[in-house]
Write a structure and sequence with these properties.
With about 270 residues, the chain is an alpha/beta fold. The protein has one domain: SGNH hydrolase (Rossmann fold), CATH 3.40.50. It contains 12 helices and 9 strands. It has a 5-stranded parallel sheet with strand order 2-1-3-6-7, with helices on both faces. Strand 1, helix 2 and strand 2 form a beta-alpha-beta unit. It is globular.
Length: about 270
Amino acid sequence: MINFLWSSFFLSKIICGSEEKEQIYVFGDSHTEYSLLPNDDNQLKNLSTSGEPLRDTYYKYLSLKKEIGDSCTIIIGVGYHSFYFYTENDTSQLQVNEMYNMLNDNSQLPFYFQKTDKREFVYKFLSFLYSLPIYVLNKDRYGGYKEMKRSLDLSEDAACQRFKKHFENKLFDPNTISFLRKICDSKAGRVIIYFAPVHPNYFNLIPDTIKLKIDGLCASLVDNKKVFLLNYSNIELDDSCFYDSDHLNKKGGKNITRILLGNVNEIKYGKKK
């Protein structure tokens, strides 16, 4: 509830207003945040933030449904990594997951605070931070483009490290598809499932079994009437378009934003299946 109130109050400040063109609202993690840029006529509003899982995307969307309305286009940014989470073998991540579950279920918070007094202040503080809207934490992102502070490294070794970060000790989580399906089943005028481009050195490390599984699950949500799929994971881009093996830089973002807006128009006017 707190999260909904904060988000509705602050994020509505960048959502409100009636523009001539149909609005496009973008949700997702850093791969989406850095690959789709606000365009000149303010048609595309990128509400993505680094590290955002599909669960957060779903609840963020719920909290903004009133401001967004039912006639706009919603873009949900995902990657093959979006559907994989830590296994029980990773005890440090289990602690994070325990905290995360508490923050997403306010009914458990009082009991948890009583049970572990030492963590009371930390959890209350973290729950407050979690409830802060993305606009407050990243408000400079909506006035233009914020450069990623990361050194360029597209080597195979660097791509391997990025791949391990996303997939090592992780298993497929069926809840991720459930959250994505709920968004697709919402009253949004149009939902587009979007895969941001990644460098070939990263893409080629993803096992075909994972690609086929996720491609099939996403395809099962697509009807090409209300729900569409734009998978640019393996689109050909020059190395100069990347920050690292799985994030675009400003040049890459401009290219993909232009391509995506063209594809959205094709979808809107029934020219793209």
